[in-house]
TrEMBL record:
The keyword Oxidoreductase does not apply. Keywords: Signal. InterPro entries: FAD/NAD-bd_sf (IPR036188), FAD/NAD-binding_dom (IPR023753), SQRD (IPR052541), TAT_signal (IPR006311). Pfam families: Pyr_redox_2. It comes from the Bacteria. The lineage of its organism: Bacteria, Pseudomonadati, Pseudomonadota, Alphaproteobacteria, Rhodobacterales. Residues 1-20 form the signal peptide. This is Pyridine nucleotide-disulphide oxidoreductase. GO terms for molecular function: oxidoreductase activity. Residues 34-142 form the FAD/NAD(P)-binding domain.
Length: 334
């Protein structure tokens, strides 16, 4: 299997000026090849747009998650990530070739993307929609086993189903905890998540929800209170701020225990959200800065690597809504 070091990958990207210098359109000549990495809303739209604008070219969309694009849309849960709006059949009809694989390295000098399967894809133009990934937190007890037991369901379909199953099995008088990190990348998603959990708790006699909000964002807290009040689901909800001891310092998933500045909290179901950053490929490619996000201009051109174009939530300036992701794809110059 072909793999590249971070240094060689970054050097390859830096040489990408020969392929796609800043200000250059993504218009493709007949027979040229475009690769789009990531089949979220931005990536799927970008691939369709490139195919429609360049009928004589080859456009391939690479996605690592086989559940992302079912032939028919799968039933959604309350915690699923936004659908791309595209299926294998609709993308094929638009002239887009789809490959289920993972990009492990990019060599812009050679115009080749290395894949997890061991294959390589040649390209003339490359668009990255790498999505997001959780940051590692130094919290005692928060290991892989704890993260499995307490799914974040933050852009992960399997975790969304696991969290839904846990809530469906919530006992009477059960306790659900939502932990929100100090850095919230998607405030609107945090709001939606808190409301979804409050609705789940309201359906179980005696159950309650505790939100450990380490962000201390008054707009988020006030917005939840207003929406939950209108939906009449705020009765058994406690929202703790950092001043009230919301910070989590240690966990014991086997015992359903969180140690906070306010003391021990026991829970039957925990939705533990980690702080986020740009996806792994963006990090390996040297596209991120100290914030963990990709600084770009309005058309997604990287401020760190000449020739790289980034779409969707990974961009540092992104509002991280579906509308914003789609707008980033619409802004792609073709």
């Amino acid at each position: 299997m072909t793999r590249m070091s971070r240094r060689s990958l970054t050097l390859g990207l830096l040489s990408g000026a020969a392929l796609a210098a800043t200000g250059t359109s993504f218009a493709l000549r007949k027979g040229e090849r475009a690769l789009v990495i990531g089949a979220g809303p931005a990536g799927a739209l970008a691939a369709s747009k490139l195919a429609a604008s360049n009928p004589g070219a080859s456009v391939t969309l690479i996605e690592r998650d086989p559940t992302r694009m079912a032939r028919e849309p799968a039933p959604a849960t309350a915690f699923d990530r936004p659908a791309s709006g595209a299926t294998l059949s609709t993308l094929a009809a638009a002239g887009v070739q789809v490959k289920i694989d993972e990009v492990t390295g990019v060599d812009w000098r050679a115009g080749r993307a290395a894949l997890f399967s061991g294959r390589a894809m040649a390209f003339d133009r490359l668009v990255l929609a790498p999505g997001i990934a959780p940051k590692v937190e130094k919290i005692a007890g928060l290991d892989a086993r704890a993260r499995h037991a307490w799914p974040a369901a933050w852009g992960n379909a399997r975790e969304a189903r696991r969290l839904s199953s846990q809530l469906a099995a919530l006992r009477e008088n059960g306790h659900v905890v939502l932990r929100l990190p100090a850095e919230i990348s998607h405030p609107h998603v945090a709001m939606t998540r808190a409301l979804a959990l409050a609705r789940a708790v309201a359906a179980v006699p005696g159950a309650r929800l505790t939100v450990l909000d380490e962000s201390n964002d008054p707009a988020l807290r006030q917005g939840f209170a207003m929406a939950a009040g209108l939906q009449r689901i705020s009765r058994n909800v406690a929202w703790l701020t950092p001043a009230q001891g919301a910070r989590v310092t240690a966990v014991d998933a086997d015992r359903g225990l969180l140690l906070t500045d306010a003391g021990e909290i026991r829970a039957d179901v925990v939705n533990f959200i980690a702080p986020q950053q740009a996806g792994v490929l963006a990090q390996k490619a040297g596209l991120t800065d100290a914030s963990g996000w990709c600084p770009c201009d309005d058309q997604g051109r990287s401020a760190r690597v000449l020739g790289a174009v980034v779409l969707g939530d990974a961009r540092k300036s992104a509002a991280r809504t579906v509308a914003c992701a789609l707008a980033s794809a619409q802004a792609l110059p073709v």
